[in-house]
Amino acid sequence: xxxxxxxxxxxxxxxxxxxxxxxxxxxxxxxxxxxxxxxxxxxxxxxxxxxxxxxxxxxxxxxxxxxxxxxxxxxxxxxxxxxxxxxxxxxxxxxxxxxxxxxxxxxxxxxxxxxxxxxxxxxxxxxxxxxxxxxxxxxxxxxxxxxxxxxxxxxxxxxxxxxxxxxxxxxxxxxxxxxxxxxxxxxxxxxxxxxxxxxxxxxxxxxxxxxxxxxxxxxxxxxxxxxxxxxxxxxxxxxxxxxxxxxxxxxxxxxxxxxxxxxxxxxxxxxxxxxxxxxxxxxxxxxxxxxxxxx
Length: 295
Prior knowledge:
- By secondary structure, this protein is α+β, with helices and mostly antiparallel strands.
- The chain has helices at residues 5-18, 20-50, 70-82, 94-104, 109-113, 134-141, 154-196, 198-206, 211-251, 254-257, 263-292, and strands spanning 60-64, 86-92, 123-128, 147-152.
- The chain contains 11 helices and 4 strands, in the order H-H-E-H-E-H-H-E-H-E-H-H-H-H-H.
- Strands 2-3-1-4 form a 4-stranded antiparallel sheet.
- Helix 1 packs across helix 9 (211-251) and helix 2 (20-50) packs antiparallel against helix 7 (154-196).
- The model has no long low-confidence stretch (mean pLDDT 84).
């Protein structure tokens, strides 16, 4: 019996309408679970961006005046070189500072355009031999000529990483449970559809319908549920990122500035989630057809 695209689509959508409540529940489960998966991935990316400036174990930064004299800069270098508490240090000029700034705030192009290299002060990034030396080193430079500010970030970054790691684990844990629930819901939706059409299936078998002809509408049903759920999740992820960016800019939330993920990464995450949703729906329907459809 030849396959008809129109027949397959008609039967699939008719089945979805007949089991509207279960269909809605399955789509909702897919959407919520994939939204959580996407959120977890974006949180991880945001934390990576936020901690970019502290890579290599940097625990404090000594910002110096852009107009500091060579002798003032040399004095800072000499002091850092002779301090027994300092493990290593590096100098970041305005050009490199601007490059790092663009990476950290790639999600906020308007902010990047409003800043030039001359707006960012040069700095020394310092790694102490031991964490307890951070305050001691920083205090010794607070009132030194040419120094404008000393920033300590070890505690803040450590707290940020700890909190977001726990948050990621919780979100992923809930997402896995919901993904499993979504597969079960899709499986049961297809099962109900198979049961409702059991007489029709029996008749088709008697008149010589192929297994593929009988199975395809049910398999397409699960595919559609996964597709719709993934589409909703994609929209939620893009909308959530846009709202977060607007909130950060409007309320000047400096703590979250560097965690705003670039639009390209958001779209990439959304596409990944979209593909997972399609696979999820197809898997659920395939399992249902194999288990409950005896053809």
